[in-house]
Amino acid sequence: MSDKLARGILPALCTAFTDDGKEIDANRQRALTRALLDVGSQGFFVCGGTGEGKGMSVPERMNVAEVVADEVAGQVPIILQVGACPTEDAVELAQHAAHIEGIDAVASVAPIDKPNDLAAAVAHYRAIGQATELPFYVYWLQGEADKAATADTFLDAMGSVPHFAGVKFTDTNMYLFGQLIDRSGGRINAISGPDEMALPAMCMGADAAIGTTYNIMPKIYLEMRRAFDAGELDLARTCQLHANRVIRILIEVGVLAGVKSMLGWRGTPVGPPRVVPPLDDAGERRLRAELDALDFDVS
How far apart are CA 69 and CA 61, in angstroms? Predict the structure, then answer.
């Protein structure tokens, strides 16, 4: 592809709920989206794992897509994750997305009832891809991908998926990521998923990166990408080191719950998570204490 949609740093946008977690809070969603735009985020991945798409109804997911697209107003690309649900619901979400000005592409994880099965995934992806004219991205999750797939067999299979444009690769196998890029002749829009491996993925040829912790420290990742592109590798490594120190803390307390708590502390509340328990008081105290002990700005 000569004109790749996703480039740079794209937060996997948190979905904002009311304090009881029962409803979408459009005002909070707009505030978070605006804050991330204002610091220079280069796109958004909406209703993915971080966005808790699987924890929302189809109408709720449609609502989030509409709110985010309206707030972004075409300033940066938006990729909407429509999977983690039955294929017919994913098709409905994709068709709805095609009528929202500002949604630039759709993506999907493997079918929820048939993980680790490339043939089943292709059938699911094909149904979504042919439902609209939007570019389609595979959301490759390490635990759900077909373990027998090679770069060549995967790319061959994607040849039957209408509008296939690229991969959001949430997997630690950087060799396979690099092979997908190389064996495609660099044509796919290659997007890395693991926040802790954003820089290694850049070294393998990633066009863009999508991640959970970009909601709370987008500046670190934006500086990492800028430094990498400028050949300032020591600075890029320092950015990854700093990010990973935060990620270590979050892994130990609960990543999504921790990210949502941090957003609340910082004045951009997004309510509790739905798909995992919120932090308890001990978790909150530990997270605050360990972040306060860091010798750099987490932003």
Answer: 12
Return the CATH number at 94.
Answer: 3.20.20.70
Return the biggest CA–CA distance within the chain: 51
Residues in Cβ contact with 62 at an 8 Å cutoff, skipping those fewer than 6 apart: 93, 96
Tens digit of pLDDT per residue, the chain (299 long)?
348 999 999 999 999 999 999 999 999 999 999 999 999 999 999 999 999 999 999 999 999 999 999 999 999 999 999 999 999 999 999 999 999 999 999 999 999 999 999 999 999 999 999 999 999 999 999 999 999 999 999 999 999 999 999 999 999 999 999 999 999 999 999 999 999 999 999 999 999 999 999 999 999 999 999 999 999 999 999 999 999 999 999 999 999 999 999 999 999 999 999 999 999 999 999 999 999 999 999 99
Place of tokens 């890395």: 192
Please tell me which residue in 139, 214, 221, 260 is annotated as part of the active site.
139
Q: Which residue has the tokens 């130990």?
A: 252
Query: In terms of residue numbers, what domain contains 282?
Result: 8-292
Counting every residue, how long is the chain? 299
Does 1 reside within a domain? Answer: no
Catalytic residue among 4, 125, 137, 168: 168
Is residue 137 annotated as part of the catalytic site, yes or no? no
Note if 147 is an active site residue. Answer: no
Does 298 fall in a domain?
Answer: no
